[in-house]
Amino acid sequence: MIFTTIETAPGLSATERRRVAGAGPSAVLTRTSYAGLLASAGFTDVDHTDVTAEYRETQQAWTMAMRRRASGIGAAMGQQAFEQRLDDREAALAAVDDGLLKRSCYASIRA
User: Fold this and answer.
1) Cβ atoms within 10 A of the Cβ of 11, count?
2) Residue 62 neighbours by CB under 8 Å, 6+ apart
3) Could you give the number of structural domains in the chain?
4) Please, what is the end-to-end C-alpha distance for the chain in angstroms?
């Protein structure tokens, strides 16, 4: 199995976890690492690749594109929804920049 996910950096404080909960996707907080979850499900040879730099680059590009097209997007989806979506992207970028949020690629096999 191969998949990518957005996850928290290890060892976050309670305050940092609350911040990440608001900056990441809805299920970003897990009690167990993905490597641990894969192992408990019987997967072996778990390989992890950090692709946070690429994730950050993509988030930045989306944010810049949204700002360039703000009037049209705001008209299409509603200004309030647009502003919330932009705020969410900016919060995710800040969390990445502060080392709290990362994107990972996992590959593993199940015998």
Assistant:
1) 6
2) 89
3) 1
4) 11
Alpha helices by DSSP H, listed for the chain, are 14-23, 34-40, 52-68, 70-77, 79-97
- CATH number assigned to the domain comprising residue 12: 3.40.50.150
Tokens of 60: 């930045």
The whole-number pLDDT of residue 76 equals 96
Cα–Cα dist 4/11, whole Å: 20
Is the pLDDT score of 82 beyond 90? yes
Residue type, 56: R
pLDDT per position as a tens digit, 50-66: 999 999 999 999 999 99
Spatial distance between the Cα atoms of 5 and 31, rounded to a whole number of angstroms = 15
pTM of this structure: 0.85
